[in-house]
Design goal:
Blueprint lengths: L5 H22 L8 H34 L4 H26 L3 H35 L2
Length: about 140
């Protein structure tokens, strides 16, 4: 049985990115809260690690299993993998902006990133869930 890490999609990843946005916004007020920069870097590092692990899980386990069980899914899976590359670009750019202490740039990237992540989650849920049910039913 193949499991999808829905908790990471719905809460852990999106929640972690929203937390980063919150820290960026706090920092925009001149560092009112002590330790905001350190908390922001820690939250960003943790988010990037969770995102990388999640994408690896899908690309190394889930997607190959779906392709094998349903060869017709290959184009849709390829599109999801392209989106994974975009998410990696956003993560890299966000990390760069945070390290450069570019709060305004980091805020804009993180907002676009969150929108892209939500869109990807929706497409992935629609594409993968039906196939996954069929795959697990055949197990």
């Amino acid at each position: 049985m193949i499991a999808v890490r829905r908790d990471e999609h719905d809460g852990v990843l999106t929640g972690a990115l929203a937390e980063i946005i919150g820290y960026i916004r706090m920092g925009a007020y001149g560092g009112i809260a002590d330790g905001v920069e350190q908390a922001l870097r820690g939250a960003a590092d943790e988010f990037v690690a969770k995102l990388a692990a999640h994408l690896r899980h899908e690309e190394e386990l889930l997607f190959p299993a779906l392709r094998k069980s349903d060869p017709g899914s290959a184009p849709e899976i390829a599109k999801l993998e392209e989106e994974h590359q975009l998410l990696r670009v956003y993560a890299t750019e966000l990390a760069h902006r945070i390290k450069a202490k570019d709060a305004e740039g980091a805020f804009e990237v993180s907002r676009s990133f969150l929108a892209a992540l939500f869109d990807h989650i929706d497409r992935e849920r629609r594409s993968v869930d039906a196939r996954l049910k069929l795959l697990n039913a055949g197990s």
